[in-house]
Structures are given as C-alpha cells and as structure tokens.
# Entry
Amino acid sequence: MEIRKAEKSDIDDFVRVYTEAYKGLENYAYTRKRDVKNYFKWLLSRDEDGVMVAVIDGEAVGFVACDTNWFSVFERKKVGEIHELFVLPEYRGKGIGAKLLEKALDYTLNRNRKVAKLWVGRTNYRARRFYESQSFEEAGEWGKWVRMRKELV
# Structure
C-alpha cells in the first residue's frame, strides 16, 4: 500500500470511494455527486498537503483529510482537524484507516499542532470505536455529532 498526497486529478476516485464508504451512513454524508466533488475541492483548498489517499495496486481505497489551518473555538488555537477518513468497505479491518490516520497525525505534528480533533456521527459506532482505539477521547456532542480529540506529543 502507498499513501500519497491527493491531487486534483483524484476527484473521481474520491467521489467513488466516498460514496461506497458512506453507504448506510448517508445521514452523515453528502449524497449528490456534485456536492461530493465540491467537498473534495473545499478540502484541498483548506489544506492541500493534508489530503492523502491510500492506493493498492493502482486503486484508491481510502482517503484522509487533515486541516492544520483549522482554528478550534474549543481549543482557542489551530489544531489538526480531521475532516474526513474513509476506506472502501472491502478494505476495512486491514489497518488502512489506522495508517491514514497515522499519516494525518504525523502531518499535524509536523505543522506544530499539538491537538487533533474530529467530529463523528453519533450512531456511527464502528468509527467511534476505531477512534477510541487510536486514543481519541469524546469531548462533547452537538446534534447528531460527537466531538473527539487527542493530545499529540
């Protein structure tokens, strides 16, 4: 597996993997192709170097988007905000999500951010367990979302 910086040309792979990864979780996702494309463009505009793709045998199988330009009103400073992390269903449980997250957290530290944050769907129990296994802690709820954070050292 290779993890590399995502490029603008990865937009179609992003849409394909995102759509597959969010099947059954549509209440937490964009569902129109145009919206997913615009989301990808927005992620790149926020922190181009923080958007990464996992590739196996030439196929994109997962993405992470880490925004180190994000100012957290909770932390009152810039943090590494994980806007997205998703993997194709058939590749889950193989450590790909953990590797993508590791790359995003390394990137966060390299940008001198000491806290990583994210929001996860309240009923997305699989993702919540995954983040807890990666030492993220719940730090509040808002509507259908749970805020999670991790101190980086």
The chain has a mean pLDDT of 97. The longest strand covers residues 59-72. Strands lie at 2-5, 51-56, 59-72, 77-87, 115-121, 137-142, 145-151. The two ends are 26 Å apart (CA to CA).
